[in-house]
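Our preliminary data section would be incomplete without showing what the modeling component actually yields. Below, a chain of 465 amino acids is followed by its predicted structure, encoded as tokens that our downstream tools consume directly.
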Amino acid sequence: MRLLLTLPFLLLGACQRAPADEAKGIPVESNREFSLDELQRRTFGFFWERAHPENYQVPDRWPTDRFSSIAATGFGLTSYIVGAEHGYVTRAAAAERTMKTLEQLWSLPQGPEPSGVAGYKGLFYHFLNNDDALRYRDVELSTIDTGLLMAGVLSVMSYFDGDDTNETRIRELADQLYRRVEWDWSLNEKGRMSMGWRPDRGFIPAEWNGYNEAMILVILGLGSPTHPLPDNAWERWTEGYEWQEFQGYEHLNFTPLFGHQYSHMYVDFRGIQDDYMRAHDSDYFENSREGTLSNRAYCIDNPEGFVGYGPEQWGLTACDGPGGLDTIVDGETRKFYSYHARGASADHIIDDGTIAPTAAGGSVPFAPEECLAALEHMWTTQYDSLVGDYGFRDAFNLTYTFGEDNAAGWYDVDYLGIDQGPILIQIENHRSELIWEVMKKNPYVRRGLERAGFTGGWLGEGDRG
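Predicted structure:
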């Protein structure tokens, strides 16, 4: 269960009114025909319209109203690049929104106090209040969520390369935010990063060890020119790896699909290898393809007999769910979770019949034929219940037919920022490789990969900066 120790903190969400700035809303038509353009445009609207109108932080979820998520804000920064490239907003509007977001992140107070601050030592708290963007309740100072935020920060640093005032300021702020993070401060006595820290309790005992979503975190820590992780950080990280067979696919397993997706949103792992992947004659991109196809194969087999699973309706990952109570289904007791890290791998299986569109949407580059077929099927067959102004709602469960309004199954009412991001960004990487190409120009990402021992592929093409 090494993978899921941070996930309970992702339970909740936030709702904001639309920003009253230069782009008031993205037009939405009742287009029931599936297209990648329509899905991306609507998903972009979540980040553009729901970001807070004063501090520009992105809500954890909407329409439920609770708090913002620093990881979702990182995904939001990258989404503005996609929006500018597709013309959903102008480049100038995207640059202005980006600059305002970075200005807010830079100006938020940092310190060891338990309240009244947004972070400490350059890292940020997992969730921030809606109104003042300061620490929400007693959430942890999160290493992985800071890593995902900084991935978004570096993406806009490399994309906005113009000479005008806003784009110049974006690069300055992004560089300052990244250089301020004290990645090495989070190391424990085993040379691994803690998952988080609280002022009253210190570091969380759980550490980042073994294959999961934190590849990007370790890479960014290794790339830092100011507070870098030590030379052996990647070696310490890979010591927890386990290569196993699942559903006929031999690969480095991870149970929910988000672990195969998050780092790939920002790094093109095709053809580049570290020592571990060289030994297995593979790379992390191919590994995520195997992980995606094994997840799909499990759903097709459907050993628990859940309703609706099949070749075009599958995908288990961290997402919302219908509830946390045991329920009798066909004479058997079934456990249905609320927010939980669902998935299937050789490590273990967590499956309650809940499918999340982000599972297929975030894996489109790895298995485009299978993933696009699933997205189209879910869009066209369940449009009224599953699709809204911001694209796919987070999840659904056709087995759960209990309670009011669930006669045809349970459908989420919320969109989640950390699940919207992979859909938008990974579809764009599939279509144009935009974010991958942007990040290849970033010297910190390149340095982190090289210090981790990656060679080959585009890393051998010289300085792209």
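The first strand starts at residue 61 and ends at 62. The chain has one domain: 2-292+420-461. Preliminary results of this kind motivate Aim 1 of the renewal.
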